Amino acid sequence: CEKASEIARNSEKGISDPRVIEISRQFYSSVSFETPFRFRNDLSTLLRRMNCLATLPAQVSQIWPDWHNHSHLLANKTVPSKQWLDAALALLEPLSEGVLVETILHVLKGAGACRHNMASHQAIRGMIFICSRKPYPQLAEAIAQYVLEEGLLIEKTLNERLANTCIWTLGQMPGEMATPILERLLDQCRFPSLQMRINAAIERHQENH
Hints:
Layout: H1 2-11, H2 18-28, H3 37-54, H4 58-71, H5 82-91, H6 97-110, H7 121-130, H8 137-149, H9 160-172, H10 178-188, H11 192-208
Helix pairs in contact: 1-2, 2-3, 3-6, 4-5, 4-7, 6-8, 7-9, 8-9, 8-10, 9-10, 9-11, 10-11
């Protein structure tokens, strides 16, 4: 019981919505330290994502089901098509630019990463892909921070597709801020396949800007 309580307390770090906190306590009442770490890690990510969605602005929550459905067109896609991006921006058009940027920052901060593709996985990838059309340095920095904090360049098996999503997006972003950010990520990457993708993104970004 004490072990389960300790796990529950740890799982609630960063969770603010009382409904998600209650769900967390119910989940972890049947979990112990003997439960495989991978399961506990993925469950923790699921709770973080639930909290992230529960604390979205009201106008974002209204369109999120449609966004969720549209994002599932990304399944088995390495990069989005122009048609997908155009339709995604049209879907998000009811949001002001400020609300959209804050929503992306909110998702990147609260979404987490896991080994398995949860239902929200494509919706998060979609939010990252949208940044490829946005010229804001704070989004580029947030994507890089997400990559580093979630260990996407350290543990390849965590979710290589999420890492690729972030790398491709940075290489497509307008402005000049992405190249030094990609170079910073390259310095911390030890996996040849991801190093090749980062180098390709740097070259592409330099050619286009």
